[in-house]
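#onboarding

Welcome to the new folks! Below is a worked example of what a typical request in this channel looks like: someone posts a single protein sequence, and someone else replies with the predicted structure as tokens. Don't worry about understanding the tokens yet, we'll cover that in week two.

Example request:
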Amino acid sequence: MNYLLDLLLIPMQVIIVIYTVYYFILAVVGMWRSRVHKNYTPKNSFAIVVCAHNEEAVVGELVKNLRGLDYPDELYDIFVVADNCTDKTAEVASAAGANVHVRENKQEVGKGYAMGWMFDRVEKMERKYDAFLIFDADNLVHPQFMLEMNDHLEKGESVIQGYLNSKNPTDSWVAGTFSIAFWMVNHMWHLAKYRIGLSTALGGTGMCIRTSIIREYGWDCNSLTEDMEFSMKLLTHGIRTCWGHDAIVYDEKVTTMMASCKQRLRWAQGQFDCAGRYIPKLFATGIKTGNIMILDGIFQVSQPYFLLLTTVYLVLSYINAYTPIYTNILYQIMPMSVWTIIGVGQYLFPLIVLLKIKVPPKIWFYYLLYPLFVYSWIPVNILGWFRRHNKVWSHTVHTRAVGLDDVKLTRMGNMNKNKK
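Example response:
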């Protein structure tokens, strides 16, 4: 070692190489999928849970949408939690046909608390359901969503995350780049991990969870990222979160950078908090059981820390270019030719994904601005780390009511091709 900083920077470079290769392999795997047989015979019953806080502008369209899904009416019920609302969310949801439950609790505030409250109420009902489906009030759902989730349940899967699409990708460049980010994650992370037998993570909406899972392990996930928390909780028990690539839910993306940063800050705070609590548990359980899937969960939950690490390394590498302060071993670990392939891939893979899902023409312009969105994660993540112990819920405001007829049902052709 030639420099004192080598004690820090050499291990850091090894970690960067490991994560870079890992991400590249997943991206390659996520570029295609196998043809699968699907069983679209409705068998499972569903309790649909929608937690809504002051969502009178959008919840009505969602309930109408859910009532028209391609699934027998007698096999599902729609429950809307009007959570600490000061508007007409309860009245609008009830008029649209939902079974509304009003919750008032100013101490336990947040989606995680509302979900647990509703899960308990459903469990005490006379009717028993096979699985919960969870949506956000601003969502719209593809007509075949429940058929797809029914198919996954029939395959023996217990926890499934649906494909998070966008219902307003052309509203602004922020909504467009946000949509691109979700499309990338859907293919280059969720689909890839599912294909090779690893566990992915729940995404907050479009989720399917067997009621027996809630009954056995409980919910009790009340962090700012209750979805990630529950995924990691289950993973410590060896329970895999699966991926429903054709179970599509259309999510409303925020349209301004300020709203985007506010929403992502909440995610960053929750993910840092979750990482601090679950990385030790995943490591200990994974080593004890020899379960690679559990150890892989560390990659999932440590992503915000990896972004911080690469940010620090990037700054130090610029300094090192002018005044050597550490030993660069990146090209000793992997040859330049491999780094070149990975560099080309990081630009090529997103283009392939956008071509596959046939995005609106406007998205190609937004793709040019995509790097701005990516780099904006750096200050968000830094602030999120400092605020990781702050668990005050921040609500994302939704004001634009959109019907399913107004949303392009992207990837529907792919769904029909896989149906047998």
